[in-house]
Design a protein that fits this description.
single chain, alpha/beta, Rossmann fold, Nucleotidyltransferase, domain 5, Taq DNA Polymerase, Chain T, domain 4, 36 helices, 25 strands
Amino acid sequence: MEQKKLVLIDGNSIAYRAFFALPLLNNDKGIHTNAVYGFTMMLMKIIEDEKPTHMLVAFDAGKTTFRHKTFGEYKGGRQKTPPELSEQFPYIRELLDAYGIKRYELENYEADDIIGTLSLTAEQDGYEVKVISGDKDLTQLSSEKVTVGITRKGITDIEEYTPRHIMEKYGLTPEQIIDMKGLMGDPSDNIPGVPGVGEKTAIKLLKEFSTLEDLLASVEQVSGNKLKEKLAEFKDQAIMSKELATIERHAPVEVEVDNILYEGYIRDKIVSLFKELGFNTLLDKLGEDPSGTEEVVLEDLEFETVDQITDDIFADENYFYVEMLDDNYHYAEVIGFSLVNEKGYFYLPADAAIQSVTFKKWAEDATKKKTVYDVKRSEVSLRRHAIHLKGVDFDILMAAYIINPSETIEDLASIAKYFGVRKMQSDESFYGKGAKRSIPESSVLAEHLVRKSVAMSDLKLLLEEELYKNEQYELFADLEMPLSLILADMESCGIKVDEERLQKMGGEIHDRLLEIEAKIYELAGEMFNINSPKQLGVILFEKLNLPALKKTKTGYSTSADVLEKLAEDHEIIEYILHYRQLGKLQSTYIEGLLKVIHPKTGKVHTRYQQTLTTTGRLSSIDPNLQNIPIRLEEGRKIRQAFIPSEPGWVIFAADYSQIELRVLADISEDEKLIQAFKDDLDIHTKTAMEVFHVAAEDVTSNMRRHAKAVNFGIVYGISDYGLSQSLGITRKEAGKFIERYLDSYPGVREYMDTIIHSAKQKGYVSTLLHRRRYIPEITSRNFNLRSFAERTAMNTPIQGSAADIIKKAMIDMAEALKDKDLKTRLLLQVHDELIFEAPEEELETLKKLVPLVMEQALELKVPLKVDYAYGPSWFDAK
């Protein structure tokens, strides 16, 4: 008969451990996920190692328990849970449901009491029991049948407490752990104990007197007058402390051990949740398909394959799909086209169409209206074959994105599914995934592509109606659609890279790395692999005796956040951090950029993702030119390699000054903020003056730094925890700072209250140009989900409006350059900055034209301000 094994997990403890062990992580919707990720890693390891037959996760039910009747200040010193963690608890509970793991909480009791009660019952019923927690209080439950695993530094590093281990470690029995707590207390739970008695003294006393009660009854026999006096004076407090530390093992738990079977995870729920949270690596570990595709039964479809293209297959209204197998359409080959209109359903083989004069003439005829999926992708791919796609009046992808930017769009099938129209097979299930991708035979491919054009014909009217209903058609037609073609121009043009300069930089960084490496070896007193966390951990924490702040499954944590906290403890830390930063520059940016220089153009052709972010911001990939690090001097210098593509030209850069704060001033209508921008004051100095109640000349650099952090923090919905982390101050100080800020700018406070109220009524928030973001969680009964939604409601209109403004500026600039017949080209958009290349003779014109156009992109209650610079490289244009 199989040995039954029950695993009991302290849910709150593990969630806290995961949250503080990992840096703050976000999914693409901005939800923090580090605690959920760490919790998942822990679960996977426990299931793999323990192979439980029964499993339960216990949570604390609330802030007050029966212990508060004994001592009202119990757990009184604990800080409020950071909102970045609170918002993750609903996902942790959803995770447990998806894993098929029972969860339980009991009013007036703690998770410890649930675990204590169930472990005793299970032990008596012959179960083997494993308890997992970060709280050493639970070691009192240890017995021959119950092992208590206590998490150490990191996520999955667990120390196992058996009666034998407790005896070896403390010289005590599990039962005596409670007596030890009674004597020494527990600051984390605000259990007072006996003042002046620490762990060593408590252990020594218990070895001599066995129990707290025996000790207090024989207090005269204790050596040392001071200790004797303390024990006598705080006798009642010691007894109360022991009572508080004692886990209740007969709580009124309504769960039967036999009924908490663990039968494995529920595939569909896990796939759905991991996809939502962006845990693709964990999906791979589970051997699951991240797409979670399902088999689709398709209706019959009749179509015609057209090898000889003639005018009679085209109509005035066409649904046209361009197919490529690779996501990077700057390099991918077109593998086929499909066309649906009043004349019929057609498949056009790639070679037949591309070589056809008739097809080229139709594609470039602006009077022949075309609905496509992703106009930018379609346009750029055809340009490579000297065909310019014109007459596109509707983009299915763009419309779907604008209607709900929070919905993940993977392909046309996902849009069709979301809007409840024609069933389709997803591209991933049709072509395969990754290295397994392949193109099926022509007839099968043809049918798949024709189904796409048919789906577009089903979707267009529905999407149009939704855009009009939401007052978003102008955003679609006047902003995003024209911008798609401008981005297509920018991508096709690319930006010139000085390959020799990049290689020279690579050599310089390599030499610098060798110098730093030598210095690190000198400070360490020996050579070792600096890139090995294990070897580095031994050097730092064993040889140099630095304090080990975190531990991982494989040893000491040497993550950046750990090292930064140790920076003042030893000179070696600064060199290690610099070594890592330079190594990242070398591999990701120097070597990475060299790999993506186009062999024919000598340029890099980044791709802008226009339909990805929930705020409307553009993102850049292959390569990501919006993320070149500029904090390090060596990182900034990488921009020296980006140069004009023609002799006698310069790089001209123009960026908005504090655009999001200006948008905040406009939306909040705060008089002080508006006046500060109208008076062209330094807004961070002005904020410091308001918050610290000092004159401008008395604002210190530290005051301004704090003010700047709050200014931008408000824009991004910062919490007291987030601000405390960025400034290195306590949460209490950070909270007071935020309060003083909101007192100084009452319009901002009123905006925050108003926007939350509006979001609760409407279910969404909007930007100045009517871009929406739906926030269903804002009316959730769950406080944590609701809090996150409220912060999202506050910052989305600000970030989204700033994104809309720069997009409008790009369209206006393109028109202005064309109207004035200038040769200047728009090359890049990097957050709030536009990068051009221009002939030197056009510089004087640009100095006036660019700020004028960008500052008039959208009229606000405060002036928009644009700074510009230019030079022989992007680095010099600063």
